[in-house]
Structures are given as C-alpha cells and as structure tokens.
Amino acid sequence: MSDDTHTRVKDIETLSSQVVYKNKWLTVKEDKIRRASGQEGIYGVVEKPDFAIILPIHNHTIYLVEQYRYTIGQRMLELPQGAWEANPDADPCELAKGELKEETGMQAEHMQYVGFQYLAYGFCNQGYHIYLATGLSQGEQSLDAEEEDLKIIPMPLDKFHQKVVSGDIKDASTCNAYGLAKLKGFL
Fold first, then answer.
1. Nudix hydrolase domain: which residues (predicted)?
2. Taken in order 148, 166, 180, 46, is the CA torsion positive or negative?
3. Burial class of residue 4 in the structure, from the number of CB atoms within 10 Å of its CB (0-12 exposed, 13-18 middle, 19+ buried)
4. Which of 6-10, 55-59, 119-123, 140-144 has the lowest average pLDDT?
5. Residues 49 and 57 sit within 8 Å (Cβ to Cβ)
6. What are phi and psi of 82, to 5 degrees?
7. Tens-digit pLDDT profile for residues 164-173
C-alpha cells in the first residue's frame, strides 16, 4: 500500500494536551498519547516559533556573534540567528534580514536560501531557515535586552571551517547551516 492510495494511520494519537508552562519565547505541553500498539503514555512537547540563521560572508570572512549562553554558563561563537516571537508567521527572508541587521548591524545585497531543518524534533517543533548573506554593508546594531553582551567576531572562512571540524564551535544550528551550505555548493 502506498500513502497515495490509502489514508495513513497516525503512529501516535493525541488523547489530550495540557499547557504546563508558557512565556513569550516558548510553550511546554504535556500530551497524553496512544501508540499504534494501543499502549498509552505521555509526551513532553516544546513549541517555539521557527527561526532564521544567517551565514554572512564577505571577502572570505564569515561574521559570527559571540554571546553568553546561560544554560551552559559559557560564551559561545555562533552564526547570527533568531526568531520574531511577536510575528511567528513572518516571511523567513525578512526575518533573516532583520536578525542580521539586529545582531551585526549588517545589510545584505543578496540573500540566498540554503534550506530548512528542524532543531530537535524529538521534543521540539522548532525549525530554522538557513540563508547565505553576501554583498554586506555595515550599519548599526539594534540589540534586544537579552543580547546586550553580543559581540561581532569576523573570522577567515578557513579558520571557521577548522573550528567547526575541531569541535570548538559547538552550536548545532551553526554547524548544520555551514555544512548544508557547503554540501549544496554555496561555499
């Protein structure tokens, strides 16, 4: 049987859903479920709006941001990225342009769409759109309060590649965005 000719049965049926926590960035739900075998259980789900991640590259230099990540207690290097919680249905390209300007002050003459990935679909519905930004011009940053410690770190592309390979850059979205752009021939 193919999915084209028959309606596919869900592997897991949601019996009930309860919001157990919510703030302006995320919602945590606890769902009572029934598996195809009939066995019931619970599933914790984190709902977050999709985000954009940007590879800003100019003259063989990639522009990263460094900021303190509270959850791991360290300053980390990563690509500019973010979501607009107040407008979760924003056009992904406009979101990418906005996040690039906000975090780095840069504007891109060209935005090329690289692809879409999910962050961690084992527990979270959030995905991200990947863009390559070129033809960059520098302007002023416009940081959110949560980003007050953010620093722009220009890095030669080959050094960035080495830091990804060596594991010095640990942000999965950054590594994935770079890898996908490289595999698709954007870099």
1. 47-177
2. negative
3. exposed
4. 6-10
5. no
6. 170, 175
7. 999 999 999 9
| DSSP conformation letters of 115-179 | EEEES-TTTB--EEEEEEEEEEEE------GGGTT-EEEEEEHHHHHHHHHHTS---HHHHHHHH
pLDDT tens, 85-143? 888 888 999 999 999 999 999 999 999 999 999 999 999 999 999 999 999 999 887 77
Give the C-alpha distances (Å, rounded to integers) separating 3 from 7, 10, 11, 12, 36. Answer: 6, 12, 14, 17, 17
Structure tokens at 112: 């090329």
Q: What residue has token string 């084209």?
A: 4
Domain ranges of the chain: 12-47, 51-183
